[in-house]
Amino acid sequence: MEFFGYLLLLALVIVVLSLFFSFVPVALWISAAAADVRVGIGTLVGMRLRRVVPSKIVNPLIKATKAGISLPINKLEAHYLAGGNVDRVVNALIAAQRANIPLEFERAAAIDLAGRDVLEAVQMSVNPKVIETPVISAIAKNGIEVRAKVKVTVRANIDRLIGGAGEQTIIARVGEGIVTTIGSALTHNEVIENPDSISETVLQKGLDSGTAFEILSIDIADVDVGRNVGAQLQTDQAEADKRIAQAKAEERRAMAVAREQEMQAAVQEMRAKVVEAEAQVPRAMAEALRDGKLGVMDYYQLQNVIADTGMRESIAKGASGDAAARSGR
User: Fold this and answer.
1) Cβ 300 vs Cβ 289: under 8 Å
2) HSE value, Cβ hemisphere, 13 Å, CA-based, for 171
3) FRET label pair with 209: which of 6, 21, 65, 106, CA 20 to 30 Å apart?
4) CB-based burial label for 188 (10 Å; 0-12, 13-18, 19+)
5) pLDDT tens-digit map of 190-245
6) Where does the chain show beta strands of DSSP type E?
């Protein structure tokens, strides 16, 4: 029985020690003490109670101490509880110190909490970044399209990193400057022969104002001649004018056809009236003969006049036909 009692006591001690070492990071405390970083066991236990991973605080603190940077552990823990990346902030402080860039922990923590990569910003301050714009098209005053691609060398401005605009703003502003410069050129040859005029004009506009970067240089990567937009526009205008003229001509033709049809209808109506009037002549003559208003001799004399008129018309037609035949010879 005593053996089982000792065995049970040993198991209980092992369980208690396991729970103790799992809750109290003794190994981390030893590492901190070896690095001359003073962190009490109570502080580590308090981190556990505050749901803070001790290694996320102590390891960056050891790194900062070895780099000669003094940081209060409370500030590191507060930054962790605020959702920040303590290790990245400490790395940024170490990189800034090595590069002689003035950077305090509060500003680095604020940049990190703002969603910016503070370490990348410090690295970009030391090693500027090249931003390449897409192909930007613009039209010179002579109607020729010019396409340009630009490389913008920027350096991060840590003082304006919080609240400053990003890379997309730089690209948009540079594109606007390129369009303005090309559009103000009289001919596309001016841009092709002197592409530096684009970078000079764009640099004078202060495009980095209000951004998180400082523009160091703007270099033209490629310049190419595109379409003759002016000629294309003139061609399109001429085609449009042609279609308008055709539409107006078709309208006039339709109106002429309508007028001709109206005239033909009027002629037909007049002919119908003439035929109707001619049909009334024999009846009128018969009534005149019956009423004694027209004598027989008058009727014969009228027929002679009609016959004589017909003979004269036939003679006139024959004479005109002979004259036309003679002129044809």
Assistant:
1) no
2) 11
3) 106
4) buried
5) 777 777 777 777 777 777 777 888 888 888 877 778 777 666 777 778 788 888 88
6) 129-132, 136-139, 144-156, 213-228
